[in-house]
Design goal:
By secondary structure, the chain is an alpha/beta fold. The chain has 28 helices and 19 strands. 50% of the residues are buried.
Length: 915
């Protein structure tokens, strides 16, 4: 991967104008499509496979009068007046009739309707006009809402001192908003970038690329509303994540580029290597975030799956921009990003070299020495501290958002508050009980009987409506709970009514179901709660596997996963402390204390998993790199921490600032998510990764990097630090800068559990030369040829084929070589023509001595002649069991390599001797 990214970074650097133009064109095209085809956001939460959703879908067919979207017009008289006075009653009934003239209003039911009970408050001070609108919530036009509000205003003008407000489901806020406060996070990010990178030009690049990525991803999400239902929370989450990771990923790459420029590396080479090394880590980090977000589909809730996909898309765009547009921008800057060399300060006469504050490496070195001096103490303090912070999480309550969490002063919120004040909170979340009465002889009696049974349940405030439809095959009962829609009391009431279903079937012979927005919300919360454990196992298991592949260790992944769980618990604790206990609620502009949105835990777990792995990779990979290169375990901890902590700290501060900026002014749902992410990022970066991790590594010492050999062989390897690239670059001028060898190899060896296939093989093959590799079956001939052609990997040694380093550039080698394995006489000529199509630099023919037919031997003879005469400009490698079988085809002078079973050092021979 690092080799591919190296080439990608260099190409983007050289073609910077074209790369920038492509990304700007993408922004214009995606933005244009979104502007033309976008539709309103939809806040309806559907939950396929549940009783509430099935009943709700059925009602749209059997009882269309109660399908569509509901609204309310609440009127409260001046203090002391009764709404039953003739002047108020006449005005309200006239208003109800007038409301039915509005285009999208299906029906408007006066609180004085004889079929309605409970629409007038107990003190006769308020009444509710119930409205049924045609179409889904997203289809209700602004004109309709405005006309409803105008009718409410007319009532207030007619009766000074009264209150009237139109609201309800139709007025639920469905447009995301970004205020000036969010820009504070961007300003903080710019300041941190400036302090970290030391240059306005360098600091501006991560911001510019992140903002472009956010623009593209937001346009894609908004455009997707033309094809699927998307809630307003979805683009806001994509905005938060896209901005945060976009800045961070670019910061890692630009920081590596600046360090390399400071070391004197040429700008183009530095950009390519930065993409190959830091870019590899960016891909891994981005993939972990995207996989975790995609894992939200585990809950099998459509809106949550859509949210995860949209956020993952924003992360993917950020990664692609960091790997392509960023090196192009580095190309525009060129050497202007090279840090100025500072003159070293002269030491005092009594100050020895390597001592003093500057030699100590500053705050990072002091910090890592403190936390690793007594690692047990550090570990106990961190675990105990985070345990205390996590305690409020046990009281965290979950629910879907309703109009009670809408912004203060909005029509939806004002109506919600008026209804709660005059009727009780339960009137804002009525339940609908459906009954299939198609087989009943007394549908009215059945409905009344069920209503009376429900009315007797604890927690029921009223049952204002119990009626069959026109066909008398379905009946509905409206149940008003005593408690708020998001309360535990309402949840228990839903369970109690569902628990009576067998009783209703025995007594009345009908099947019942509980539905309505409140019941759907309860079902969503229940399903999310049940999905939390499987999702947690998926995320934890994934982290263990991925980190084991990256760090080739057992202890490091376990430590990283435990640290991640501590960060998640602390994040949950902070959210519960603010939104459940009300701590710091005023400071954070949290107006309503209570349950948070149901999908917050699973969403936080997914997002924080990806971000935690970011910091783990960028910090611990540097420690591992120093350890692998010969430093002791303790020295590697200190040097790796000092080298990477500055960038990790800057990235965490930026991400914290971006998330925290959404807390003061964000809508209720976004507030909780943003607070959880901000706290989680801060805790994970500074408490877990930069405090707990060094202490655990210091406690374990060399044991931290132990991995069973069998597991090391099985697991694929992620080259996040670009070690393969460094090997490739180190051999760029090997064996000499002007070498034109088609194959050059030294000390090639392949060992496996089955034994040694070949050992200490040296080869030097020029254009126009023929190499015959002779070996008996099982002697490794085929393995050697596959290794030299980039189709298998040797275990020791170094080699170049067609000018490319193996195994790092095996893909390029395969594209420049042809390989024929003789298996059947009839296919040899065809296989040779196919392999030689396009004149590859080198052609490999294995088991050529099996050929017996005249045509096949003639094809091989022609190929040998074309190569050795220099006519084709190619080189040829032939594998045989016995070279004597091809004696009549071989030229007088050729290279020969004999593999034997003693595995002594081997080299290439020709007819005259060793080469």
């Amino acid at each position: 991967m690092s080799s591919f990214l190296y080439s990608l970074g260099r190409a983007a650097y050289r073609r910077r104008g074209r790369t920038l133009a492509i990304w700007l064109l993408v922004l214009v095209l995606v933005g244009g499509v979104a502007g033309v085809f976008n539709k309103p956001f939809d806040e309806k939460f559907t939950l396929p496979g549940t009783q509430s959703q099935a009943a709700l879908d059925s009602l749209s067919l059997t009882f269309p009068q109660v399908s569509g979207t509901t609204a309310q017009l609440v009127f409260a008289t001046p203090d002391g007046d009764s709404i039953r006075d003739a002047r108020y009653q006449d005005a309200i009934e006239d208003t109800a009739k007038d409301l039915e003239s509005i285009a999208q209003v299906e029906s408007a039911t006066s609180p004085f309707d004889e079929n309605i009970d409970g629409a007038i408050s107990d003190d006769d001070g308020a009444g509710i006009i119930s409205l049924q609108l045609r179409g889904a919530q997203a289809e209700i036009t602004e004109e309709t809402k405005t006309q409803l509000e105008e009718r409410a205003t007319q009532l207030v003008e007619e009766f000074p001192g009264s209150q009237a407000q139109a609201g309800g489901e139709a007025f639920s806020e469905n447009r995301p908003g970004v205020s000036i406060v969010e820009a504070v996070g961007v300003v903080v990010a710019l300041v941190v970038l400036l302090l970290t990178l030391g240059s306005f030009r360098a600091a501006g690049m991560p911001l510019a690329t992140a903002l472009l990525g956010v623009g593209i991803s937001m346009a894609m999400v908004i455009g997707a509303t033309a094809f699927t239902l998307i809630s307003s929370t979805t683009p806001m989450l994509a905005l938060m994540l896209g901005l945060a990771v976009g800045i961070d990923y670019a910061l890692f790459i630009v920081s590596r580029h600046r360090d390399q420029l400071a070391d004197g590396m040429e700008a183009e080479e530095s950009a390519a290597q930065s993409i190959a090394t830091a870019g590899s880590a960016v891909i891994f980090a981005g993939l972990t975030v995207m996989i975790a977000l995609g894992g939200l589909a585990v809950a099998n809730i459509p809106f949550l799956t859509t949210m995860g996909i949209a956020a993952a898309l924003a992360v993917a765009v950020a990664v692609l921009i960091a790997l392509t547009l960023l090196p192009a921008m580095l190309g525009f800057a060129g050497d202007k990003l090279r840090p100025k060399q500072r003159k070293p300060k002269q030491r005092k006469p009594d100050q020895a070299e390597g001592t003093g504050p500057r030699a100590a490496g500053g705050l990072a070195r002091v910090w890592v020495r403190v936390v690793t001096k007594w690692p047990i103490v550090t570990i106990l303090i961190v675990v105990a501290g985070l345990g205390v912070v996590s305690l409020p999480a046990q009281d965290l309550r979950l629910a879907l958002p309703d109009n009670g969490s809408a912004p203060a002063g909005s029509p939806a919120r004002t109506t919600y508050d008026l209804v709660s004040e005059n009727f009780g909170e339960g009137y804002n979340g009525p339940l609908i009980v459906t009954a299939e009465i198609v087989g009943s002889d007394d549908p009215l009696g059945v409905m009344d009987g069920i209503a009376d049974d429900i009315r007797a349940l604890p927690g029921v405030a009223d049952v204002p409506l119990a009626t069959p439809n026109e066909n008398a095959d379905t009946g509905i009962i409206q149940v008003i709970p005593e408690s708020a829609p998001d309360s535990e009391g309402t949840k228990q009431l839903v369970a109690d009514i569902r628990g009576m279903s067998p009783q209703f079937e025995d007594e009345y012979g009908v099947e019942t179901a509980v539905t309505g927005f409140t019941a759907v919300g309860i079902d969503v919360s229940d399903r999310l709660g049940k999905a939390l454990l499987p999702f947690g196992i998926l995320v934890v298991g994934l982290s263990l596997v991925l980190l084991t592949m990256v760090f080739r260790s057992i202890a490091v992944p376990l430590k990283a996963t435990i640290g991640y769980l501590l960060s998640v618990a602390a994040s949950f604790g902070a959210v519960a402390a603010v939104f459940e206990y009300g701590w710091f609620a005023d400071l954070l502009n949290v107006e309503d204390v209570g349950p948070v949105i149901s999908f917050l835990p699973i969403l936080l777990m997914g997002v924080l998993f990806g971000l935690a792995m970011d910091y783990e990779v960028f910090l611990v990979a540097r420690i591992r790199e120093d350890y692998v290169h010969g430093k002791s375990a303790h020295q590697a901890i200190e040097s790796g921490f000092v080298a990477s902590s500055r960038v990790v700290a800057a990235a965490a501060i930026i991400m914290f600032a971006v998330f925290a900026s959404f807390v003061p002014t964000g809508e209720g749902v976004i507030k909780a998510i943003a607070l959880g992410l901000a706290v989680g990022v801060f805790v994970d970066a500074f408490v877990v990764r930069m405090t707990l991790v060094p202490a655990v590594l210091a406690l374990l010492g060399r044991r931290a990097w132990w991995l069973p050999k069998w597991l090391d062989r099985v697991l694929p390897s992620f080259d996040v630090e670009g070690e393969s690239l460094h090997h490739q670059l180190s051999l760029a001028s090997w064996p000499s800068p002007d070498s034109n060898h088609r194959i050059y190899a030294e000390g090639l060896t392949m060992r496996s559990q089955l034994g040694t296939a070949f050992s200490d093989v040296d080869i030097a093959l020029q254009p126009g030369e023929l190499l015959v590799i002779e070996g008996q079956p099982g002697a490794g001939k085929t393995s050697l040829m596959l290794s030299l052609s980039g189709r298998m990997q040797f275990t020791e040694g170094r080699a170049k084929t067609a000018g490319f380093v193996l195994p790092e550039q095996a893909g390029a080698v395969r594209s420049r070589t042809g390989f024929v394995a003789v298996r059947s006489e009839s296919d040899v000529c065809t296989d040779i023509r196919r392999a030689n199509h396009g004149r590859p630099d080198i052609l490999f023919i294995d088991d050529a001595d099996r050929v017996q037919s005249f045509d096949a031997r003639q094809a091989i003879a022609t190929l040998i002649y074309d190569v050795t005469s220099g006519a084709s400009g190619q080189s040829l490698v032939i594998g045989v069991g016995d070279a004597g079988a091809l004696a009549d085809l071989l030229p007088p002078d050729y290279l020969r390599l004999s593999l034997n079973r003693t595995y002594e050092p081997l080299s290439v021979h020709n007819a005259e001797g060793t080469r």
